[in-house]
Amino acid sequence: MSTCRSRREIREMIDKIQANVEEVKKKHSAILSAPQSDEKTKHELEDLMADIKKTANKVRGKLKQQNIEQEEHSNKSSADLRIRKTQHSTLSRKFVEVMTEYNRTQTDYRDRCKNRILRQLEITGRATTDDELEAMLEQDNPAVFTQGTLADIEARHADIIKLETSIRELHDMFMDMAMLVESQGEMIDRIEYHVEHAVDYVQTATQDTKKALKYQSKARRKKVFLVICLSVTLIIIIIILAVQLA
């Protein structure tokens, strides 16, 4: 498979993850707004999360496969190598951005679930502090909440347990990709710097060219004017000489 085709596939997979993250946000809102636990929506959410995890692992594997450092010793020209490095780093950064948004979505949902549990506990007359709730959540035992019919609290607790697992799984991926992006950051910054200065240089050169053309045009007009003046003067001299000789 060509490198160009591989990068196109990576880009498509990143776009797919991004679209799935937006769907995850919608599922989160639907679950939290429902008066009762909706198993169908929860299953759809779990499928989305599983698909994101599977696709993200594929992207990470493909990005690591493209070992840019090894291409330093290939027969590629330095210009081509810089382009390939830039493309690779751009994809890596985009992937990290999308996964960061996914992680933010997960932690936000966790906080919203936790706040809902706190409100439900208050309604049942069991006021709980954040620290106490965190201790309950860490027990990984929904029974700590079951007093009477607290099905909603139990459901939210189960959601949080799944989220904790998902967030932990993302941690290693973040560390791996963050190190890759950081190592390429300085190189990309240098390229962007040179590109910006190249654009400035081209703009300056264009302005200088316009000025030169303007000055050249003025000089040409002056030359034509001078020739005309000399011609008129010569004609006047010839006329004067002709009159005198007559």
Automatic annotation (TrEMBL):
InterPro entries: SNARE (IPR010989), Syntaxin (IPR045242), Syntaxin/epimorphin_CS (IPR006012), Syntaxin_N (IPR006011), T_SNARE_dom (IPR000727). GO terms for molecular function: SNAP receptor activity; SNARE binding. GO terms for biological process: exocytosis; intracellular protein transport; neurotransmitter transport; vesicle docking; vesicle fusion. Residues 60-83 are annotated as: Disordered. It comes from Leptidea sinapis. Residues 150-212 form the T-SNARE coiled-coil homology domain. It is found in: Membrane. Pfam families: SNARE, Syntaxin. This is t-SNARE coiled-coil homology domain-containing protein.
